[in-house]
Amino acid sequence: MQPIFEVRNLKRAFGGLAVTNDVSLSMAPGDRVALIGPNGAGKTTFVNLVTGNLKPDSGEVRIGGEAVTGIDAIGRVRRGLVRSFQVTRLFADMTPAEHVALAVLQRSGRAGRLFGNFLGMPDVMAEVEELLGKLGLKELMHRKVSEIAYGQQRLLEIAVALALKPRVLLLDEPAAGVPQSDTGRIEQALADLPADLAVLMIEHDMDLVFRFAKRVVVLAAGAIIFDGSPSDVTKDPRVREAYLGSYANASHAA
Amino acid sequence: MTMTTTNDLIATAPVRRRFGGGDLAGLAVILLVAVIGYFLFPNNLALLTRIIAAALLVLSLDLVTGYCGVATLGHAALFGAGAYAAGIASAHYGINDPLAMLAFGIVAGAVAGLVCGVVILRAHGLPQLVLSIALIHLFHEFANKASSWTGGSDGLSGIAPTALLGLYEFDLWGRTAYVFGVVLLAIVFVVLRLIVRSPFGMLCRGIKEDPIRIRSMGASPKMALTKMYVISGAVAGVGGALNAISTQVVGLDSLSFTMSAESLVMLVLGGTGSLFGALTGTVVFMFFEDVVSAANPFHWLTMVGALLIAVVLFAPKGIYGTAAAFFARRKEAQ
Ligand SMILES: Nc1ncnc2c1ncn2[C@@H]1O[C@H](COP(=O)(O)OP(=O)(O)O)[C@@H](O)[C@H]1O
Ligand SMILES: [Mg+2]
């Protein structure tokens, strides 16, 4: 199948340190990919580079066959490339309903409207309630985000991304900080995603990775060292070494 | 520039209507204060009209600073553009119908807003502030140099508005001008309430908190802020035109750094990020400037300074913002 999302030879260094070192990756519609790797491997940087939040030193990004390397972050979102943030980025003074409504309005070209209020727009409210209901946030939809628990904020972060109806969804550690009791909601939301959506999820919870992904990509020190099926990943000697090595380095540094 | 706002008060309201009881109450308060002012100061309606013009400038500033977080010390450029456009239309082109003059003011204010927005929004934080100061000086210098149009430092005179709607002459007591001003303020207030709670208003609140988040939702903060600048310019233009029509002169002070800075002081005094904060701050400041300065010409600025320090230190949400927060807490406690 024609890839919906393609990265070719992406490179980025910070002060001589190659944080993304010649990364190539492609995804087809419907792909469920988990991107794993030790802390500091460059996973978040990879997301920042492909979404246009960071500029690569070289390499190419394509969405639906179109090269978007010269297009800014906004243009890439409009082409269907949507991300969530590892560290929640929400508007403290706004409610979950407002967050999702803003995303829905933006997607449907109505975020610039000078009149009306989303509470009076039935189609927007229907979508808001459905999405927040799915993630268990409906009761809290009119509370300020600063008043709700961090785990619920993580869920809202996902809701905002989903409300944009992406073609390619990049989730940066969606379950980090979500209590065990709530990860089921994330999983359910992921299971309910449109079948033709391509999803790349960065995640440390291996149980979640194995249930979700049909393909696992391992990043270590900025390079892809494994790209294959979940059943093979734990057996791969390079992957084992990368994880052991990173723990050795971590204890060394500490 | 980070400022405490009163947006949060609005955000907690569980249900919001398009134009609900709160808006009508707000409008009623404005009209009530206007009527009280009329009977309290019947011989000083000119002052009240000046307060309204200033309030329009401060509302306009609130849109970009309070609601969007843009730092500017050059906002009088938009007001002055409106004032000069309305004045020049009358003095040089014989367009003396007050509503037509108002239209010129609105358009000129919006254009000045576009120009200032495009320049100021290129930077953030301190550089942004510096750009805004540079802009107001440029506008001021331009008006000063183009003296055949603007009258330069002598001011623009020869402004002669005809009767409003062909019925109400602009009388010596300033009654027509005052009523005109009150009506304009009421209309602007209603329109801004609608805008503030519209999808666009929500987008701007988001931009103020986290523009990068807004970008990853596919919206352009720069586009939205530029649009807000144009709206803000139109509002300031209403104020400028009102000033030109009611005083029948336009001076360089309407395009000055001082006026820009004072409007920011008024806004902070009342409370950023709420329309009533802007109105409260204007009334308090102008009251001090005119009434207290008459009673005590040597110390009124000291008093304003002390008041401002007290507000910033002890009531950072401004006079209105603090009071509103207090009553919101009381209500919640019940
Ligand atoms: N803006 C930046 N400037 C300098 N170094 C950075 C920057 N962003 C990330 N890094 C470094 O790049 C490496 C990879 O970081 P990151 O992509 O966040 O890793 P991961 O998400 O896999 O844990 C880390 O060593 C980090 O310190
Ligand atoms: Mg990371």
Describe this entry's structure for a reader.
The complex is a heterodimer of chains A (254) and B (334). Chain A is of the alpha/beta class. Chain A has a domain at 5-90 and 166-253: 3-Layer(aba) Sandwich (Rossmann fold). Helix content of chain A is 37%, strand content 23%. Chain A contains 9 helices and 10 strands. Chain A has helices at residues 43-51, 73-78, 96-107, 122-134, 150-163, 180-191, 206-212, 230-233, 237-253; strands at residues 5-14, 17-27, 32-36, 58-63, 66-67, 81-83, 168-172, 198-202, 215-220, 223-228. In chain A, the strands form 2 sheets. Chain A has a 6-stranded mixed β-sheet with strand order 6-7-8-3-9-10, with helices on both faces. In chain A, strands 2-1-4-5 form a 4-stranded antiparallel β-sheet, covered by helices on one side. In chain A, strand 7, helix 6 and strand 8 (198-202) form a beta-alpha-beta unit. Chain A is globular. Chain B has helices at 7-11, 21-40, 45-66, 76-93, 98-120, 125-145, 147-150, 175-197, 199-209, 211-215, 221-247, 257-270, 275-295, 300-314, 318-333. Chain B contains 15 helices and no strands. The two termini of chain B are 35 Å apart. Chain B is mainly alpha-helical and 334 residues long. In chain B, 73% of the residues lie in helices and 0% in strands. At the A-B interface, helix 2 and helix 3 of A face helix 1, helix 8, helix 9, helix 10 and helix 11 of B. The complex binds adenosine-5'-diphosphate and magnesium ion. Residues 14, 19, 37, 39-45 of chain A line the site of adenosine-5'-diphosphate.
Give short descriptive properties of this protein.
heterodimer, A: 254 residues, Rossmann fold, six-stranded mixed sheet, four-stranded antiparallel sheet, 9 helices, disordered C terminus, B: 334 residues, mainly alpha, 2 domains, globular, binds adenosine-5'-diphosphate
